[in-house]
Amino acid sequence: MKYSMAQGLSCPVRFFARMGRRYGVEWWILCFGAAVVLAIILMALLSPLVAPFDPYSQEAGPQLAAPGGPHLMGTDNLRRDVWSRIVFGSQTILKVSVLAAVISSFFGIFLGLVSGYAGGLADRILSLVMDAVYVFPGLILAIALAAMFGPGVLNITFAVAVIYIPTYFRLVRGQTLAIKQELYVEAARALGASSLTILGRYIFPNVIATTVVVFTLNVADAIMIEAALTYLGLGLPPSIVDWGMDLAMGKKYLPSGMWWLITFPGMMISVLALGFTMLGEGLAEILNPRLLER
Amino acid sequence: MKNLFRYILTRTLMTIPMVLILLTIIFVVLRLMPGDPVSAMLGGHAPEKVIEQKREQLGLNRPMHVQYADYIWKVCHMDLGESMVLQQEVTVAIAEKLPATIELTAFGMLITLVIGVLLGAYAADKRRTIRDSAIRLYGIVVYCIPVYWLGLMLQLVFGIWLDWLPIAGRTGPRIFASDFQNTGFYLVDTLLVRDWEAFRDVLIHLVLPSFTLGLTLSGIFVRLTRANMLDVLKADYILAAESRGIPHGRIVYRHALMNAFIPILTMMGLQVALLMAGAILTETTFSWPGMGRLLLERIYLRDYPTIQGVIIVFALMVAFISLLVDIIYAIVDPRIRY
Amino acid sequence: MRVSKVIALCLVAVSLAFIPTTGQAAKKDTIVYGTTEKVSDMDTAKAYDFHTWEIFYNVYQGLLRYPAGRTDLVPGLAESYSISKDGREYTFRLRKGLKFTDGTAFDANVVKWSIDRVMALKGDPAWLVTDFVEKVEVVGPLSVKFVLKNPVSYFPSLVASVPYYPLNPNVYPKDRLVRDPSELKGGNMIGLGPYKVVSFKRDEEVVLEANPLFYGEKPKNKRIVIRYFADATTMRLALEKGEIDFAFKQLNPADIRDLMKSPRVKAITGQGPYIRYLCFRCTGKPFDDKVLRQAVSAAISRKPLLDKVYLGQNEALYSMVPKGMWSHDDSFKVYPGDGNVKLVKKLLKSKGYDEKNKLAFELWYTPSHYGDTEVDLAAVLKQQLEATGVMKVEVKSAEWATYRDNWTNKVMPVFLLGWYPDYIDPDNYTAAFAGTEGSRGMGIFFSDRTWDELFTQAQKETDTKKRTALYQKIQKMWTIEAPTAPIFQGSLFVFAKKDIQGIMLSPTLQFNYGPIYSTE
């Protein structure tokens, strides 16, 4: 063997240290966020291996047992293991929030590009609608939409996705308007490039860089909205394991002091949201320090 | 001054399409929802013909566009209609609940401002130290804590374990709002009649909900204040003041903070949506009889007029606050041209 | 610095708020009653919920009534009644010399006026009158005759229900429904019952005081204060702190469990009239087949279900007619039994279902109408049904507003429902679900001529012994046809301070405040 173990390890360690020196705290925020997100994604992917019990099993242990022994986070009134439900619950919340962010970014970017590029009356009306939705509390709209769609994983995903479309739309449209005026775009147009080419080759690549950061932060927000909806009893059928629903179920045991039923699901929601937020913040500071101040 | 007046007028007019758009969205969404108010209201015992009759009576059998035109026409005449579930004017229901929400949000905002601005200013002053990093971390962490979970945890600790504070409602079981009710703002009402016991009761009921709301929102303000303060602290006049020997604390917390305050205030306007979403969740956690609970209850019952009324009020509140912030900014900052 | 002064002032104000004030000593003749229920409309022609009815039981009185804690009817405002031969006419002889507080005399005209008003205003419970009564006739000053559309042997229990209560014609408006007592002439609810309402603050407090003009036994307390709580947790804490004398409806299972163990309060429990059951849509595949319905009923294991969902509270139910009601028979216990997996497998095998070809269906529930334990109930049922190894259950939910439409539109093959009786008679627990018309209204769509004839026969029959036999026969037939499967019967829980006596619960839910007193 050419390299010793220490040498092999020293390379990434040096890389991390160098990045840490260059970007300071932001680098560590980014790393921490990435680690948390990665850990939870792994937990979701490997749920059956990580969880000691079947999350649905109503014979996992005694009723309402406090954390300890075989039950790391205790059991609920249906004698299900809370930790196993936390593990499997990560699948739901990740699926919904990431998918929702993908859907809203797709529609938001598409509409923003087209609307900003084309301009005219349609653009003005669309902007007006998007602005109205943007300033309005998203949770309220999501509540109404979730009630309209009824319970279901895809339904709640759409309900969450709709309220973030304006975020992307405004960002992308603004940039499109600015880039449209740039000299090189004007030149391309003078040379006879089609609108599609201009949008695809000149505007889109410029826009996409900033949306990456917004996307990450958007996932963090979507996590909180998803959990809020299910906490309010909207959005998902009970046959799905979900942190927000478990939190809502644990709520009625609060006066009896059964703290584990509310502490752990809520903590996990916070940690996951924190992971994505830190990832986004770190990225933002490193890629484009002025972005978040806008 | 005349220009300013015109600016305010146009800004006000611009809120109309916004409210109209939101109202239309909600109207359509509500009609597309499965279920209807009559079924919800009558429960399982009423015969089919009674239900049909009631639907007819409420005008739910008409085509959607007719219902829509009718509703918009009424709203233009300041008539929000009558609840389909209770025999109650929507305006009355809202007038009952709105003060509760405003009281909660106002106190939440106050706590946010005190915590957020002070911590943010302190962090800016001590920039690039451990304390600065700790405060910034606090800002991020607090932003990511779901408001309802924080509420539950505070209930558990201060309400159940320590038994210091009440965990639900606006008053205790021995204090009756109808004895002092006047404006609907219980703190004001109890002061008006000088009922000190009731005042104390209302105040301690406000503590947990407003702290919950205030703490979760303070994260953003820490960051905003810090960023703005950093800019201000770099300014020449601060350096000048420093060189003249004015005490450091006075410079930071008086002069610099005052100058950073206006941008902070405008940023606050942008957080209104977040504040309201937070208020809805806080209300459900603390059984706070406000607009959020009204909205949720009535969504389950498909009470179209009340839901629409609540949405209008929320939209107006958002519009009003952003208008107010714009106007303040316009008055204070002469660079803004209207 | 000025800012610090403001902060200091705030701190002082807040700390002042925490200084405990001396609580007023509760007077012995006042009993404070806490509940999370809500009062609806203070009108017998509109109110259709048990809490509002409970206030009516104590403030007004019917021609017939249920005494505290009992299920047998006794004379109320009527001294006696007689039934015509064909069973279509009921003539009531009214009590003499009764007067409302404003001097209006109670007579046959008052009764006719009240019933006519309910029929004309068509409020929510009006069908309890209009479905049965054709007209009311004044026979003499103290004699009133109800002419029925069809002979109904349980008419006396209908007469004991709130829509039949006589009201003061000089106080209630004839042509409109009343919501608050302030809309009444005189501004307060005063009737012929043991109490009068002296203060009414919606959702906060209702105060009742003994009615000095009441003809019957005087209440053992002077004043009942009903205090309304927004949530069960606050009510529980108030009870533990001694701020209320007793609490009734609706505590969470966890709260009930803790209070049962608490040394500071005592529990009074009783059977409620409330039943929960599983409904089958008896039309269309697959549950038009009674064998499949039997199989699903056989798979329910009631005791473990109650242990998990309600922490052991409430009572397993083996018939649609609840315990405590005459003619009750534990028929489902015999067949198809409780958690009888062997039978389930046998029944399903006969229809071609087994471990490989499972019987798959949707189980529906509604998440808030029956409280937040409903999610758990559905989850446990699913688990029990699937544990047989031959069923595959998909749990679905819909808000109440949609739920109702769903059953009308035949969307739900199996669904959970609950029932509070409208009147206290086995008919209301049987015909309502398995009679052709009632069944259609509940989304069950069960229809059988033999059954309909049995129901009519039982409705007409006036001899209680024969009626009992008929209803027991129906309950036996229920286990074979199984249009619904009973699950459990709600227990009633009152938690009271140790010194409170005289609380009597009854399956009629006619909770009387009169006998309650404090020994302090």
Helix fraction of chain A by DSSP (H/I, runs of at least 4): over 70%
Distance N to C terminus of chain C: 56 Å
Distance between the termini of chain A: 52 Å
Average pLDDT of chain A works out at 87
Structure summary, number of beta strands of chain C: 19
Give Rg of chain A in angstroms.
23 Å
Helix content of chain C: 25-40%
The H-level CATH homologous superfamily of the largest domain in chain C, spelled out, is Periplasmic binding protein-like II
Largest sheet of chain C: 11 strands, mixed
The DSSP helix count of chain A reads 11
Quickly give the structural class of chain C: alpha+beta
CATH T-level topology of the largest domain in chain C = D-Maltodextrin-Binding Protein, domain 2
Remind me, CATH topology of chain A? MetI-like fold
Beta content of chain C? 15-25%
Average predicted confidence as pLDDT of chain C = 89
Quaternary state of the chains: heterotrimer
Series of secondary-structure elements of chain A, N-terminal to C-terminal: HHHHHHHHHHH
Count of individual helical segments of chain C? 17
Q: Which residue ranges of chain A are poorly predicted, with pLDDT under 50 across at least 5 consecutive positions?
A: none
CA-atom Rg of chain C in angstroms: 26 Å
| Total domain modules of chain A | 1
